[in-house]
Design brief:
By secondary structure, this protein is an alpha/beta fold. Helices cover 26% and strands 17% of the residues. Strands 10-9-11-12-13-15 form a six-stranded mixed β-sheet, sandwiched between helices. The longest helix is centred in the N-terminal third of the chain and has 18 residues.
């Protein structure tokens, strides 16, 4: 676990999770860094990457650790240039490359790094073949939201339905991935919405994939879903993981039009990952900066891995991620597993 000494909520989350999961004290790394959500690259390197590497090396955990868990209050994004060849990234995605770097590996900061674990659904997370850490984040709008997220993950329900909501009639790549996810899941456990209608208020939800605020027909901020313990979510939204600060109560998403700029929150009009934590999801993906559709989590890999093959939350999300050292975050306890 990685917790920030400068953030009371970060320390509280680390203590709570360690107690609930029986994490030894030697496996909790306290860093001294900014409580800001976005930090420059030098701050990431000096105050996050290097201290975490020291914790792993000095405590002889480098080889035995598979998962790193960050917390609300640990910086979220590493600033830099954006675009397909940019140097910006999420803190968590950069930390996923830490094992590779500690073993002398070199990679370009510009652009995404191909994830060697991508789509290896039937393969064990073998360190020799996959020299990475799987990094997830325990985050929400406040300590209570994160506490509840952790508790939900302790008693996941291997039941319920995966709801997949296409934006139109399956004419785009993202809609094709949602359709393929439906094909690869047990047919009694999936609903695919193929029209322009938007799914709201569904019950017994164990998974949800869609377009969030990028669906022009979606008009409600809240999904109204009744999530089961262990439920996971992914959406094709460029900036949904940009912040875990709570927006004003009446805030809702809008458009990128100049006339709507006054309605934006934290530099974007788009929907927020943290809303799904608030509604009761146990795992949610997000993006701190523009990832481009091709580097969003692949629902046709994520849901079959998690629901069909019984992979845990961290493995399921990372199996679905085409790239590392990129914009992605995964919110949730990495150890959550539905079982087969």
């Amino acid at each position: 676990m990685v917790a920030n000494q400068a953030s009371p909520v970060s320390k509280s989350i680390a203590e709570y999770y360690a107690r609930k999961r029986g994490v030894p004290a030697r496996n909790v790394c306290y860093v001294h860094t900014s409580a800001a959500e976005h930090v420059p690259r030098p701050v990431y390197e000096q105050q996050l990457a290097q201290p975490v590497a020291r914790c792993l090396a000095e405590r002889k955990l480098t080889e035995s650790i598979l998962y790193i868990v960050t917390t609300l209050g640990v910086p979220l994004g590493v600033g830099g240039s954006q675009g397909m060849n940019g140097t910006a990234a999420s803190v968590d995605s950069e930390l996923s490359m830490l094992y590779f770097a500690m073993r002398g590996g070199k990679y370009r900061l510009e652009g995404p790094y191909p994830n060697p674990f991508f789509k290896k659904l039937d393969e064990k997370l073998d360190r020799a073949r996959f020299p990475i850490y799987l990094v997830t984040r325990l985050a929400g709008y406040n300590f209570g939201a994160v506490r509840d997220l952790i508790d939900r993950g302790l008693a996941p329900a291997n039941q319920g339905t995966v709801f997949l909501d296409q934006r139109d009639a399956g004419e785009t790549t993202g809609d094709e991935w949602l359709r393929d996810a439906a094909i690869r899941l047990p047919q009694n456990r999936v609903v695919l919405e193929e029209s322009t209608a938007v799914l709201y208020g569904r019950k017994n939800v164990i998974g949800y994939g869609g377009w969030g605020s990028n669906d022009k027909n979606r008009t409600r901020r809240w999904s109204g879903f009744q999530f089961l313990p262990g439920a996971i979510v992914t959406e094709f939204v460029s900036s949904n993981g940009r912040t875990f600060e709570r927006p004003p109560e009446r805030w809702t998403f809008s458009t990128w039009k100049k006339e709507d700029e006054g309605k934006w929150f934290k530099g974007s009009p788009q929907s927020l990952t943290a809303d799904y934590v608030e509604e009761g999801a146990t795992g949610v993906s997000g993006h701190v900066y523009e990832p481009y559709l091709r580097y969003c989590p692949r629902p046709d890999v994520l849901f079959p891995a998690y629901v069909g093959k019984g992979r845990n939350l961290a493995e399921s999300y990372y199996l679905s991620l085409p790239a590392l050292s990129w914009m992605n975050i995964v919110v949730g306890d990495p150890l959550v597993r539905l079982g087969r």
